[in-house]
Amino acid sequence: VARWEHKTRALSRGLGSPHTACYCLGTVILLLNCVRSHCFTEAMKSQPKLEGLDSHWAYYSGLAILAVGTLFVVSSFLALGFTGTFLGDYFGILMEAKVTSFPFSVLDNPMYWGSTAVYLGWSLMHASPAGLLLTAVVAISYTVAMLYEGPFTEDIYRQKQKGAKSK
Fold first, then answer.
1. E strands, the chain, in order
2. Hey, what's the signal peptide range on this chain (predicted)?
3. Residue 30 C-alpha from the chain's centroid
4. DSSP character at residue 86
5. Which residues of 80-117 are buried (b: 16+ CB within 10 A; e: fewer)?
6. Among 145, 89, 161, CA closest to 113
């Protein structure tokens, strides 16, 4: 959807502005995330536990991983803001410069890895083999997204720099 918007600006035109379109897409993404998290939890609850993971050490390890993941997700959102988090650059809403402060100083794509860590921690806390499998699906999906998003975003900012130099 974001690439289609970048090519056509159809959402921005249809909704009256790039900011409105980005906020609408961001809201849809948030709602879909709630559905995904609910389905993830229901899948874990409906499946048997893995006895080897049904222990205090696994629970507290999962809790720690969940906490670190939450830190990465929340700090990424605070560093990027709503439009930076929800593909604003595809709508022409560009930041002045690439964010390099925490958590981006620690790893690339901290929002994606943090979200994956949240699911991993949640799975360990519930000793859920289904959760671990679904966490792997989430990690693979995010990896594919990063392969498409990273170079595309770099290109958007490269074009911005070219435009600024030619002025």
1. none
2. none
3. 10
4. T
5. beebbbbbbbbbbbbeeeebeeebbeeeebbbbbbbbb
6. 145
Which tokens in the block code for residue 71? Answer: 């830190």
Tell me which amino acid residue 40 is.
Answer: F
How far apart CA 47 and CA 55 sit, in angstroms, is 17
Longest dimension (CA), the chain: 64
CB atoms within 10 A of CB 149: 18
pTM of whole model > 0.85?
Answer: yes
Residue corresponding to tokens 């961001």? 26
Instruction: Give tens-digit pLDDT for 81-132.
Output: 999 999 999 999 998 878 889 999 999 999 999 999 999 999 999 999 999 9
Task: Name the band, by pLDDT with cuts 50, 70 and 90, for residue 153.
Answer: confident
